[in-house]
């Protein structure tokens, strides 16, 4: 029994100790923390290796950068009147959820990573608060991405019916549903007794491992919005491709000799070949098409980063409780922080494809000088 406990403890501190944690040395001192006096006795490794210090530094920088960048987006939206409308309220809702992840969730997660065996030493009440905010803010961030994708899709495919008033109503409804659903998923274990987050005997704080809750939470927090964003981007791609082909047929009619199955291919080749020669002044339609193209590219990158960041974590969260198996703690930590990093990438993607944000940032810092 003692050997098994020692094995679990050595695996739990892998992230804290770095590569030395995987040493095959049978000496228990290789995985024991520092002495009460703070100095490591002779023959023992120091409590923090260079690798672990580097990892902790990078995670701390990620936390600070995520919070400051999302805060900058919020300040810009509040100060610039032109941003006091849709779709910037959807961006603001995403920035709020991502800033809360950086301010309330990631620091406590880092503190848990630094403890021996990833033990939770802050009590049951704070554990429930942390887990609730973790699930709620991350779920809200994910659903906000789906809401932005839906807004872009309706803007591209229904730009005549999807007026400013309709967009405002739809965005307010999506934001309300996003936060209500996120709160329901986060508070369900506390409200309905759906598993326990805190284990006092093992000093462990984690999301409820009840299999039924694992299915409910992962589907509601990730798999359902994942299906929404993938379907939306597929529809955006089809709409953009259809509009491109219709424009080519209108501008460059094919000769009568081209018939049958080769007609669409010939039309696309002719359009691509003669596009540089068409030096017409930009019209309102072409300006709208360029704007829609940028929106489609932004949504594509946003969805791609979102999937890459979160799918490893949610696969592990769904499979683990169902098969009563568990990943090594080091991989759990990697998947968790990869998901957290999505809150850092979201504001970068929004601002990179919007010149108004770049100009607002420049004006903001110029005025401060």
Automatic annotation (TrEMBL):
It comes from Muntiacus muntjak (Barking deer). One of its GO terms (molecular function) is G protein-coupled serotonin receptor activity. It is found in: Cell membrane. This is G-protein coupled receptors family 1 profile domain-containing protein. The lineage of its organism: Eukaryota, Metazoa, Chordata, Craniata, Vertebrata. GO terms for cellular component: plasma membrane. PROSITE patterns: G_PROTEIN_RECEP_F1_1, G_PROTEIN_RECEP_F1_2. Belongs to the G-protein coupled receptor 1 family. The keyword Cell cycle does not apply. The chain crosses the membrane at residues 50-78, 90-110, 130-150, 171-192, 212-234, 295-315, 335-353. It comes from the Eukaryota. It is a multi-pass membrane protein. Residues 69-350 form the G-protein coupled receptors family 1 profile domain. InterPro entries: 5HT5B_rcpt (IPR000431), 5HT_rcpt (IPR002231), GPCR_Rhodpsn (IPR000276), GPCR_Rhodpsn_7TM (IPR017452). GO terms for biological process: adenylate cyclase-activating adrenergic receptor signaling pathway; positive regulation of MAPK cascade. Keywords: Cell membrane, Disulfide bond, G-protein coupled receptor, Glycoprotein, Membrane, Receptor, Transducer, Transmembrane, Transmembrane helix.
